[in-house]
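Shape matters. Shown next:

___
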Amino acid sequence: MHPFGLAMAGHDVDTAVTLLAANVAFRSPVVFAPYRGRDAVAPLLYAVADVLEDFRYTREIGSTDGRDLALVFQACVGDRQVEGCDFIHLDGSGLIDELFVMIRPMSGVYALAEAMEARLKAASGGRRPT
């Protein structure tokens, strides 16, 4: 398992953040525009680690050059079970410069979006996350 997967599965978000390139682009299933930069993505990783329960990776799929990975996961958001995949691209130095997430089913996406908005709003002192 890639170190990012090991860190996130072990709730070691601090380590996961160190694996992000400074210019990382993160695409989410619930927002149109990507989040750009380690400082913008880190709070999302901390929030998702709090929101997703019973989080576990079930499979890792990699490209022949080792720079593209798909980490398949399962988790719960409240009473909703979700399945998803973290798609990761590594830059020339081995840091994650692209991370995008796909999740199913739609009811799980809605539950995750609501939970993430509440978590990020609480973390930002009541301001709505952008």
Summary: The two ends are 32 Å apart (CA to CA).
